[in-house]
From TrEMBL:
Keywords: Cell membrane, Membrane, Transmembrane, Transmembrane helix, Transport. This is AzlC family ABC transporter permease. The keyword Metal-binding does not apply. The lineage of its organism: Bacteria, Pseudomonadati, Pseudomonadota, Alphaproteobacteria, Rhodobacterales. It comes from the Bacteria. Signal peptide: none annotated. It is a multi-pass membrane protein.
Length: 240
């Protein structure tokens, strides 16, 4: 077992991460379950949906890619949508380098795979609060945060798939996906730049709703990012 090979300080850091990550199970369970349900409703097989969750392990990117699949988008557009949603992971990785860059390759590979919002946010907060942590302790803490979340993401995806197969087609679950996106996005709209980005994305998406293969959604996403950036620059200049 991983913890049995850790030294005492690293083991202590691991259990601290496990404790701090446990509350996020309450988030992973409903999101993973709903993903399993709508993945089945979208026509994915058990192997495809489970492979999706295991390989990608990124809720927002999975929902974005699945939405593009439902829109019958080409594989290139599906990948672009998932990449656009997950661009923040590149920033997460860059900010983790000062703390975990000296770790062995296999540990950095684990961090890359398990690097999602919860593990990143909790770990960086811990590292900043305790700058004297060693690299093994930092890795152990990161792994601890991921330990309770990751298995539940996989298991509840499976539960959602099984539940989705039991739901009659007449119930039509198409409305679930936009509701999930609203649940994820709404709490993040906190500034005028966010409001502008949301307004532009909705407007452009509605104008381009008849474009084939989900192209309209990608154009709307690009327009939203541009609008948000312009408003942010304008606000900074105004503040100066």
């Amino acid at each position: 077992m991983m913890t049995s090979t850790m030294k005492a300080p690293a083991k202590s850091a691991y259990w601290a991460g496990l404790r701090d990550g446990a509350p996020f199970i309450l988030v992973a369970v409903p999101f993973a379950t709903v993903f399993g349900v709508i993945a089945t409703d979208a026509g994915l097989t058990l192997a495809q949906a489970m492979g999706f969750s295991i390989l990608v392990i990124a809720g927002a990117a999975q929902f974005a890619a699945l939405q593009m699949m439902v829109e019958n988008a080409g594989i290139a557009f599906v990948l672009l949508a998932a990449l656009a949603v997950n661009l923040r992971m590149a920033m997460y990785s860059a900010s983790l380098v000062p703390y975990l860059g000296a770790a062995p390759l296999w540990q950095r590979a684990c961090v890359a795979y398990l690097n999602f919002d919860q593990t990143y946010l909790m770990s960086v907060s811990r590292y900043e609060a305790r700058p004297k942590m060693t690299v093994p302790e930092r890795f152990a803490y990161f792994l601890g945060v991921a330990t309770p979340i990751t298995p539940f993401w996989f298991v509840m995806t499976f539960v959602g798939i099984v539940a989705g197969k039991a739901i009659p087609e007449a119930w039509a679950l198409d409305f679930i996906m936009p509701m999930m996106f609203l649940a994820m996005v709404a709490p993040m709209i906190k500034s005028p730049a966010h409001v502008a980005a949301a307004a532009v994305s909705v407007s452009v998406a509605l104008l381009l709703v008849n474009m084939p293969g989900g192209i309209g959604l990608l154009i709307a996403a690009g327009a939203a990012m541009l609008a948000g950036a312009l408003v942010e620059v304008w606000m900074e200049r105004r503040a100066q």
